[in-house]
Structure formats: structure tokens, C-alpha cells
């Protein structure tokens, strides 16, 4: 499976602003990249990249006064299989967990599992341990939370999602993670590209959040927003929650003027040279955030 993925972003700043951008694919991305996968930024922004403790690639820039246009466009070759399923995967005893997994049992900024322990055990204490318990949590969150961009809030915690029953994709992930951790199941946040591949078109593209759990000696992907195995996930970031991997961390005032994401399946068997020629121009498509002039028209 060949997938073309990328974004265009326009940020307006009243003065130079330092920023951290979590907009590249993860260092452990599965698949073969064709083209250059990095954040393209204006030369005067002095962009450079580093890798954090979770294997995420961040780009540092100094966004100048006025408009800063960011973009990326690349193709990845994936196996095309949906998210792996392992119904027999067992939950580990705490004493058996690797040291680097233990951190994903702890409450975090947005996954306040300590506030959901009683609710979690009331809801899932009688469900079978392991994969089936995580499936029960995923199904509950899928049914319990109503999706809508109007419900998004930058400081919304998992316990607030639980009470309000509304949110965006990261809220589905945060609540699922918090409930898993409350049940002593290691869980972590993940985000990336997930296009409408093999499913009906759902509107303008966006980045998507899901979660991963540690069962049977490895990490597995779950997605409470869609609650079905999906093909074509392209991993960008992982962390304890979204606080570790904000798309844009700005150390000053800025305005997001334009935001467009594409994730398009290409014809199988295309030659690399053909793909590289294709990448010389960016694809058309619908934007999620439109320029000021368009919004005012």
C-alpha cells in the first residue's frame, strides 16, 4: 500500500516566536518512506530537529514576524494490513513489567487516572483481564463520548471527558488511557495520519489520536474514536498524553491561519521515480482551517 501524506500550515505572529513542532513521522515508523519527510520551514526560521526520549522528532524554529508557512509531503509504503488483533494477549502483573513500561501506568497531565480509579473498577472490574478488558474499555469510551470539534478544549482532562461525555479524538484517547491505567494496564498516547482508506469519506483531513496498550510483551493499537481495526495509520508521535507531543508548542502569541492535511492512497506499483516527480507539486484538497480572507468572505 502506497500512501501520500503531508500538511500545509500558515501561522501568523506579531513578533518573532520560538516554537517546537511535532509534525514529523516517528523514528519507529513502520514502512518505507519515499521522498523527504521533514518539516519545510522558511530559511529565516533557522529550523533544526532533535529526538526526544519517546523517539519523537521535534523541529525547533524561530517563527518570524508575519506569516510562517510550514509544509511536508511524502509517500510511505505500508503492508496495508489493519491494526493487529490478539484476543489472547494477557495482562502482565506489575512485577513483570519492563522498567520503561512502568511510566505508562502513572497518572499524567491529561490522563488523570487517579481520579477515575473507582469508576474504572466499578465499570470493568468484572470483565476478563487482558485484551478483552481493553476491548471493553474501548467500546465504553466509543459509546460514552460524542465526537465534535466544538467540544475540544486545550486543557480538558480524561475525568472531564468522562463527566461531559463529549470531545475530539485526543479526548477519546485520553479517557481510554486513563481507564486502562486505573486498571493497572500500561497505556500511552499516539497520534499521526489516518486517512479515509477503506472507509467512507469523512470530511477535511486532520491528524488523529489513538492509544496503545502493553499486553503479552508488546504494544498494540486501539482506537476508541472509530472502534475498529484500520489500515494506513502513519505514526507521528507517542507520549504519556498530548502534553508530551503538542503539534505546535508556541512560546509567544500566534494565530493559526491555515491548516490542511492529506492522506491519500496511491496506485500500487508506482515507480519511485514517478512518485518523486509527483511530489514536486502538492496535492489539492479541502482545508480544515481557511485563510482569514476566506473566513470573512
Secondary structure elements and pairings:
Blueprint: E1 2-13, E2 17-21, E3 32-34, E4 48-51, E5 57-63, E6 66-77, H1 99-102, H2 117-124, H3 131-144, E7 146-147, H4 158-164, E8 166-167, H5 169-182, E9 187-193, E10 207-215, E11 218-222, E12 234-239, E13 248-250, E14 255-266, H6 272-278, H7 292-296
Parallel strand pairs: 7-8
Antiparallel strand pairs: 1-6, 1-14, 2-5, 2-13, 3-6, 4-5, 9-10, 9-12, 10-11
Helix pairs in contact: 3-5, 4-5
Question: Would you write up a description of this structure?
Answer:
This protein has 297 residues and is of the alpha+beta class. It is 20% helix and 30% strand. It folds into 2 domains: 2-79 and 247-296, Immunoglobulin-like (Sandwich); 94-231, C8orf32 fold, CATH 3.10.620.30. It contains 7 helices and 14 strands. The strands form 4 sheets. The protein has a 4-stranded antiparallel sheet with strand order 3-6-1-14. β4 (48-51) and β5 (57-63) form a beta hairpin. It is globular. It starts with a strand and ends with a helix. 36% of the residues are buried.
Amino acid at each position: 500500500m502506497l500512501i501520500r501524506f503531508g500538511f500545509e500550515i500558515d501561522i501568523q505572529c506579531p513578533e518573532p516566536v520560538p516554537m517546537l513542532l511535532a509534525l514529523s513521522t516517528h523514528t519507529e515508523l513502520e514502512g518505507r518512506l519515499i521522498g523527504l519527510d521533514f518539516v519545510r520551514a522558511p530559511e529565516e526560521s533557522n529550523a533544526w530537529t532533535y529526538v526526544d526520549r519517546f523517539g519523537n522528532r521535534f523541529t525547533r524554529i524561530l517563527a518570524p514576524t508575519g506569516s510562517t508557512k510550514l509544509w511536508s509531503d511524502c509517500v510511505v509504503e505500508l503492508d496495508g494490513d489493519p491494526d493487529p488483533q490478539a484476543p489472547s494477549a494477557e495482562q502482565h502483573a506489575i512485577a513483570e513489567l519492563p522498567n520503561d513500561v512502568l511510566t505508562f501506568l502513572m497518572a499524567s497531565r491529561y490522563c488523570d487516572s487517579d481520579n477515575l480509579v473507582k469508576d474504572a473498577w466499578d465499570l470493568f472490574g468484572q470483565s476478563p483481564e487482558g485484551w478483552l478488558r481493553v476491548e471493553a474499555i474501548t467500546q465504553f469510551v466509543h459509546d460514552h463520548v460524542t465526537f465534535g470539534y466544538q467540544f475540544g478544549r486545550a486543557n480538558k482532562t480524561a475525568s472531564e471527558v468522562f463527566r461531559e461525555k463529549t470531545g475530539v479524538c485526543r479526548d477519546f484517547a485520553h479517557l481510554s488511557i486513563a481507564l486502562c491505567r486505573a486498571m493497572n494496564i500500561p497505556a500511552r498516547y499516539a497520534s499521526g495520519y489516518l486517512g479515509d482508506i477503506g472507509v467512507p469519506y469523512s470530511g477535511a483531513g486532520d491528524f488523529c489520536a489513538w492509544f496503545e496498550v502493553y499486553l503479552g510483551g508488546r504494544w498494540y493499537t486501539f482506537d476508541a474514536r472509530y472502534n475498529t481495526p484500520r489500515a494506513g495509520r502513519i505514526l507521528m508521535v507517542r507520549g504519556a498524553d498530548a502534553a508530551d507531543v503538542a503539534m505546535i508548542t508556541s512560546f509567544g502569541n500566534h494565530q493559526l491561519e491555515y491548516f490542511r492535511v492529506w492522506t491519500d492512497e496511491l496506485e500500487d506499483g508506482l515507480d519511485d521515480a514517478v512518485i518523486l516527480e509527483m511530489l514536486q507539486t502538492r496535492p489539492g484538497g479541502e482545508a480544515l482551517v481557511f485563510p482569514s480572507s476566506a473566513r470573512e468572505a
